[in-house]
């Protein structure tokens, strides 16, 4: 049985730093970022814990492929992607994920 995946983008309170990640359990992974479970990580260092974009995939391999593509995009393209579905840059994290 294949496991689905998710690509996500986090930012800080000022929307100045973008972090792209991939996971098979979005709710738990974002909770780890918010709790700074890994204090020496990039997201902890730059206080990136606001979920501004996510996209689900039927397999983790598809999600990893999209993550790799997104990391090559320039910042303007990433901002347009975020603002297409989340123009106010709201934190999309909730227990409904």
Commentary on this structure:
With 97 residues, the protein is an alpha+beta fold. It has a single domain, classed as GIY-YIG endonuclease, CATH 3.40.1440.10. It has 4 helices and 3 strands. The protein has helices at 26-34, 42-45, 60-72, 75-85; strands spanning 5-11, 18-23, 50-57. A 3-stranded antiparallel beta sheet has the order 2-1-3, with helices on both faces. Strand 1 and strand 2 (18-23) form a beta hairpin. The longest helix is centred in the C-terminal third of the chain and has 13 residues, at 60-72. The model has no long low-confidence stretch (mean pLDDT 95). InterPro entries: GIY-YIG_endonuc, GIY-YIG_endonuc_sf, UPF0213_domain. It comes from Pedobacter frigiditerrae. Residues 3-80 form the GIY-YIG domain. Belongs to the UPF0213 family.
- List low-pLDDT spans: none
Q: What percentage of residues falls in helices of 4 or more residues?
A: 25-40%
Largest sheet: 3 strands, antiparallel
Q: Which CATH first-tier class would you pick?
A: Alpha Beta
Instruction: Report the radius of gyration as a whole number of Å.
Output: 13 Å
Number of strands: 3
**CATH topology description:** GIY-YIG endonuclease
Identify the strand order in the major beta sheet: 2-1-3
Q: Please tell me what the overall shape is.
A: globular
Would you identify the CATH H-level superfamily?
GIY-YIG endonuclease
Q: Give the DSSP E fraction (strand runs of 2 or more residues).
A: 15-25%
> What is the straight-line distance between the termini?
21 Å
Class by helix and strand content?
Answer: alpha+beta
CATH architecture, please? 3-Layer(aba) Sandwich
Look at the structure and give the mean pLDDT: 95
Order of helices and strands: EEHHEHH
Number of helices: 4
């Amino acid at each position: 049985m294949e496991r689905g995946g998710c690509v996500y983008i986090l930012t800080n309170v000022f929307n100045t730093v973008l972090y792209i990640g991939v996971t098979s359990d979005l709710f738990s992974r974002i909770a780890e970022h918010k709790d700074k479970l890994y204090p020496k990580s990039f997201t902890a260092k730059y206080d990136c814990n606001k979920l501004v974009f996510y996209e689900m995939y039927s397999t983790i391999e598809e999600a990893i492929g999209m993550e790799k593509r997104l990391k090559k995009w320039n910042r303007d393209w990433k901002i347009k992607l975020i603002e297409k579905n989340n123009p106010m840059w709201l934190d999309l994290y909730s227990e409904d994920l």
